[in-house]
Amino acid sequence: MKQGMLTRREFLRLAAGTVTGALVVACAPPAVAPAVEEAPTPAPVEEKKPPVPRKEVPREKTLIIGFEGEAVPAPEVANPYSPGSRINQGYHQAMIESLWYLNYQTGEAIPWLAAGPEKWNEDYTEVDIPIRQGIEWSDGKPFTAEDVAFTINMLKENPMLSYGATMQQWVQEAKATDEFTCHIVLREPNPRFIYNNFTVRIWGAVRIVPKHIWEGQDPNTFTNFDPDKGWPVWTGPYRLVKASPTEFVYDRRDDWWAAKTGFHALPAPERLVFVEAGPDEKKAATLAANEVDGQPSLRIDTFLDVKKKNPFAIGWTEEPPHAWIDPCPGMLGFNCSLPPWDDPDMRWAVAYALDHQKIADAVTSGFGTPARYNFPAYPALQEWLEENEDLLEQYDVTEYNPEKAKAIIESKGYTMGSDGVYVKDGERLKVDVLVKSMAVVLPPLLISMLQDVGIDAAPKALAHGPYYDNRNRGDFEIETTHVACGSVVEPYGELNLLHSRWIRPKGEIRSANVWTWKNEEYDAIVDEIGSLPPGHPKEHELFRKALEIRLREIPIIPLAQQKRVVPYSTKYWTNWPTEKNDYFHPPNWWMCFLIPILNIKPA
Fold it and tell me: What is the percentage of the chain residues whose pLDDT exceeds 90?
């Protein structure tokens, strides 16, 4: 059988030059769509008393991290798959471990719960996952291939769960052939199946659940929360001891399997506390006072002010803007099933109405870089774009030309009304733009620019949960976010996000393509790329064809590279990942934050 995953040499060949401030974790799935990780409607929860911390732990032995997304409405939901679950408040960083973690600084897919690389057959239709021996769940039960097979089959049978549609699409059979081998038979060749679903790249990956607890439960409603039973049960080095809407506390498990087997030493922090980060001012104040050790983000100008107050505050780079380039550029997306946005010309009118440089500078405190396509500015991906410079010039999404925008609108039969808004057949050209209520910089700019070309635009500002509920169910006209990323090393992951296979009727949660865009030629190209191993020479020819369709039809408009300050304090903890200390990437809201947790040291 073939051993899968990109080798270190192959990865570095693809990602040559990425060991800079632009380095970051990989993206979404190729032959797979990214899971809807933060759908907002909470699953029903039983009234249970949350656990409470059992002991006092001094500040210098406590790691405190802010989490985004506002207060957690249902803190007693510890099911990472159910609609409404929230897991970035420490659940998937502290308790849940992955089969593999991808380290973009070294190019290594680190086997964790897996014992090594997966092993493929010749045509990439069957694969074995080797399981590390000696792993135990937090209740002492052994972790085996049965748990892996059970999880895959559970998801396959429940397509509304995150990763469910993907498992249903690709998996014909998953079974444990012995205690430490899970054998998967795919419906079609998919050499990226393991890499894109079971390796933490961006955000997370398939989370293996304990069969002995989940078997017989309805995974759509199961809360996985019962302190009296010791739930939630996972394999990670921490256990949950307190859960409230604004604070989650985890205590170190000194009986963690990795420490017992010698695979890894215990983490230095005895307690982890994840607290609601709040708006930028609150995040800045708590970091400046060393009340937290890290935040998920700060505006660049805000962080510059924090550094003046707190000499312990650090970012990814030593020099301004101190930012790490997030793999998810900011973007604006259309509901392509709704007129007039089902017309590519009207989508281009919106693109011409937007001053990309002004937008980029506004969201990065003057350090802005407009995005020409929906790729992060990593050298490995930029090479793909440079090969197609002629297409990027022909379809220049960054061109700011309000007159062109108006000309397109008028060519569609609209006439300017006395109030400066276009009208057609008595109907005003009106649009609601779905935005997060906590977004205070970008929405006013977008609305103003659209109004300037005669579009009666207004923000539809929703809190975190309702925002994602509307977005993931296709209940919007235009939306703006940065949740449309899928590639870091090669294009397939991002291309696959807009495959029509992910479209669902309005009101149903989609794993991807919330924009309801469909192009059969594009689908066929993406399918062909997905059947090829990464690095296949035909990828370049196929990518060019897909790129031209995407640029011509512009279902989503890239806006700006996301230069994100992920700030930490060295007051209590050191050895944070930075550009110079780049053993790993910095996001503390992703599942891979376990790696920095295991590497930080007391100050």
Answer: 76
Tell me which architecture the domain covering 2-62+74-242+253-270+577-602 has in CATH: Alpha-Beta Complex (3.90)
pLDDT in tens, 14-33: 333 333 333 233 333 333 33
Backbone angles phi and psi of 294, in degrees to 5 = -170, 155
Q: How far is CA 431 from the centre of its chain?
A: 27
Is it true that 2-62+74-242+253-270+577-602 and 330-561 share their CATH fold? no
Domain ranges for the chain, please list them.
2-62+74-242+253-270+577-602, 330-561
Both structure tokens of 329:
């550029």
User: Cβ(482)–Cβ(328) under 8 Å?
Assistant: yes
Counts for the chain of helices (H) and strands (E), in that order = 19, 26
pLDDT 10s digits, 53-80: 568 999 999 999 999 888 999 999 999 9
d(CA 540, CA 331): 24
| pTM (predicted TM-score) | 0.86
Q: Could you tell me which CATH number the domain at 330-561 has?
A: 3.10.105.10
- Tens of pLDDT, residue by residue over 418-447, are 999 999 999 999 999 999 887 878 899 999
Q: Could you tell me the strand order of the sheet in which 2-3 lies?
A: 2-3, 119-120, 126-130, 181-186, 171-178
Residue 137 DSSP symbol: -
d(CA 75, CA 84): 10
